[in-house]
Amino acid sequence: MGADCQFCGTSVLLPENGAVVVNKNAPQEVFRLPVSHEDEEALIYDYQTLAELLEAMGNNSMKNNDWVHILNKESSQSFPISLGNLYERLKHPDLAAIIHKEDFTAHLQPIIEVTTNEIFGYESLLRTSSQEVNPGQLFSFAHQSGLHSMLDQKARRAAVKAKSKYIEKGKKVFINFLPSTIYVPEFCLKHTFQIVEEFNVDPADIVFEVVETEKITDVAHLKSIFDTYKASGMKVALDDVGSGYSTIEMLTLLKPDFVKVDRAYIKDCHINEKHQSFLNEVVGRANHLGIKVLAEGIEKEEEWSWLQSAGIDFGQGYYLGRPKEIPEKEAIITS
């Protein structure tokens, strides 16, 4: 289980006036501060402001994986953090604040059923309140600062909340998740299941999908996560089939309820024979396994028409509808 398990859903803020507790076996040259206290096992460095602590660290800790404890003098409570994570949080306090304060919302992009041209559900996409910070920046910072578990969990909450507020019962909501933040599925996903219960959302209306930036290195672990979601009545999706790690063979190994085809194969699929061949192969394999196929990144009428004729089950993309905080209730096919 990861070292940040106990803090993944808790806002552990760096105290403005505190101390750093360093094991004597760790490198001592990291902090350019006088030692305030010393015992048999540790050195303690006091700091008066976070700016002072950042200056004291210099540039030596950007990729340092050694761990220290941050002590809040007022509460006498402490928590562990790697020096690399500490450096990133000190360097970008504005991004850390966005995560801690949940200063973001879920925007919902419609997913259209091919045979009926009606809305089947929506994908929840995180959007920050600040236009200066895009979701990619936030997730990149979260990974570098050790806040990825917290952000992933809070993003799930925002998505479930949006589902309860804007999406009627029976319509699905697709929610991204990072397998690397889920160490022991039965334990780590309890919080997610509590959120679903809190907002009185039918578990059958929720589809959890692996995000495109995640690299699958442990198929057995991901299958365990999928099985835990399914056991709770939820659906699962494999994202971006065709892009590197996510191959057609994964369909047989993981048996998701839905598979999303990488948008690179959707672009110009009406005229690109290689894309057509790959898409036909995916549809054939998915049909054999009872998996529904969703094409994402549809931007042209011609792409949508070809996908309809190819037997794709669902479509998503700017041609079919853009992400909005208050979503469209009816499908709008751009002409």
From TrEMBL:
CDD domains tied to this protein: EAL (cd01948)
Domain EAL: 88-335
Upper classification of the organism: Bacteria, Bacillati, Bacillota, Bacilli, Bacillales
Record protein name field: EAL domain-containing protein
Coiled-coil regions, chain positions: none
SUPFAM superfamilies: EAL domain-like
One matching Pfam family: EAL
InterPro entries: Cyclic-di-GMP_PDE-like, EAL_dom, EAL_sf
Superkingdom, natural source: Bacteria
Record organism: Halobacillus campisalis
